[in-house]
Amino acid sequence: MRLAVIPARGGSKRIPRKNIKLFCGKPMIAWSIEAALQSRCFDQVIVSTDDAEIADVARQHGADVPFMRPAELSDDHTGTIPVIRHAIEWFTQQGRTVGQVCCLYATAPFVTAEDLNRGMQVLQGGDCDYAFSVTSYAFPIQRAIRINERGRVEMFNPEHFNTRSQDLEEAFHDAGQFYWGRADAWLQGKQIFSPNALPVLLPRHRVQDIDTPEDWARAEWLFKAMTREG
After folding, report:
1. What 8-state DSSP symbol labels residue 40?
2. pLDDT digits (tens, 9 = 90+) for 31-88
3. Keyword set for this entry (predicted)?
4. Structural domain boundaries in the chain
5. Average pLDDT, integer, range 163-175
6. CB-CB contact of 185 with 103 (8 Å)
7. Any idea what DSSP says for residue 73?
8. What is the structure's pLDDT at 229?
9. Radius of gyration over every alpha carbon of the chain, rounded to an integer in angstroms
10. DSSP 24
11. In the CATH scheme, what is the code of domain 2-134+173-224?
């Protein structure tokens, strides 16, 4: 089976109740659930949560919540891989064979069904363990600066001070939306950011981390602007 797992614990600190806070008229998690269902990629779309209210909201919007995530996998330090491994192991114990799993973040309102389909196709067509969303940096990272302990500016790579931007290698970063992976890779805890992963490239205007109230406001502005254009 192909499984979508949406991790959504209840203990968000910087934006309280972030996963179910209303975003452009819907609980934030609803956007991810709807994209997963519309993609028709999955035999089942589940939410892995430790929170009863999040579970209720997830069910209202079409996801399954077949188990409650244990407390030891719901703290601030639990990574993505153990959460996905737990979900796979739960289904295995129920006699279900899981082949491919997509970890889809609950705070990814810009994700589309088409993106998820592309990710599935990349995973299936490539010799890889994972396929995940990435986007390009808007500015050359080789010309990044730091502010040191004396409040002065330093370049990370001063050798590139005179290098033209167009002559520098383009760099990319995790878009923080979804991670397709083979079940055995999740179970073995294989590293996602490695040569065994393939990129699913997204445009920069559809990528926004949502970790602070400022991020949230910017994401809503972008989303509303994109909706009007559509």
Report:
1. T
2. 999 999 999 999 999 999 999 999 999 999 999 999 999 989 988 888 999 999 999 9
3. Nucleotidyltransferase, Transferase
4. 2-134+173-224
5. 95
6. no
7. G
8. 57
9. 19
10. T
11. 3.90.550.10
